[in-house]
Amino acid sequence: MVTYLNKEIKLSASRQLWAITRSVLEINMYKTKKNGKKTKSHWDEFEALLKIVKFILKSLSLYDKGTERARQIIPKKVSLEFDNLPEGFSGYKILHLSDLHIDALPNFEDDVIRQIGDLQYDICIMTGDYRKEIEGGFGQIIEPMKKITSAIKCSDGTFAVLGNHDTYLMHTLENKMDIQFLINESIKVSRNGSSILITGTDDPYSYYTVEAAHSLQADFDGFKIAAVHTPELKNIASENDYKLYLCGHTHGGQICLPNGKPLITHQKEGSQYASGIWHENGMIGYTHNGCGVSGIPVRYNSNGEVTIIELLKKNRYENN
User: Fold this and answer.
1) 170-220 per-position pLDDT tens digit
2) pTM flag (> 0.85)
3) Domain range annotation of the chain
4) Quick check: 215 and 199 in contact, CB under 8 A?
5) How many other β-carbons are positioned within 10 Å of the β-carbon of residue 279?
């Protein structure tokens, strides 16, 4: 069973206040960071650079290989052990999807759905970036997203947070498909007489507000999961006793050297947070490689993924 923490707040003016704040941040076209700095977005310049790279890749006959690799999404399963996980949740499975950028490649939703296939999971968590561009409309992603959410079959539902490529208006998709956004909000999941908490924040990469940090101070004495688009709030989450942190944003580099080292990750937290499992002050984090691609729709030496995160109760006697 899933219930919202402070449901009356979710349905009140707080969501409207968030929408007003986020809309102003989007109009300003500045990145607002948790260190208080505001920096101008240079996406237009970055796209100009990408056009040059795209031309070079086509000249070297590498472009088609890159787009083919971008469609080669792989299924992954990650099992993680926790001391304070309730016994009733040992074996609980999360379908983690991130960075779909569903309009970057034609019919890309079908590639994602094929990998979801017959996977078994209890809940789905999406950690942001549903369209390719960082501005403009999003009508082009509605039907593909409907197809994906319709293909997701789980008892506890599908929950999502927004990324830096997403607009605040996307929260209205809740009325169009089987998905619920967690925008500085928490849900409590209950089974077998015990509960865990899942908190989702607004994107901290471009649209940080103090409300995102405050949402990670949820009053809950038990196992807690944070769902955030980037690793940027890891310190705040770990300080507030969250034990699992799910994020994406980096695409695992998307374009990597032959040894897998990413050329660009668009994050400054450190290379250890660019992909896969990491640890932060007793908290386990997982950075999703992303399902899709942005910028140039190619991948080299990396793959998109559809990931099952399995929660396991750690045996307290295993080291005795």
Assistant:
1) 999 998 899 999 999 999 999 989 999 999 999 999 999 999 999 999 989
2) yes
3) 2-313
4) yes
5) 12
Write out the two tokens for 282.
């007793």
The fold of 2-313 is Purple Acid Phosphatase; chain A, domain 2 (3.60.21)
Residues 6+ apart with CB under 8 A from 73: 111, 112, 114, 115, 291, 303, 304, 305, 306
Counted residue by residue, the chain has a size of 320
For residue 318, name the pLDDT band (cuts at 50, 70, 90). Answer: low
Q: Which two tokens stand for residue 83?
A: 């001391």
Which residues touch 275 (CB under 8 Å, ≥6 apart)? 250, 252, 253, 262, 287, 289
Instruction: Give one word for 241, left, alpha or beta, with left for phi > 0 and alpha for psi -120 to 50.
Output: left
**Chain mean pLDDT for the chain:** 91
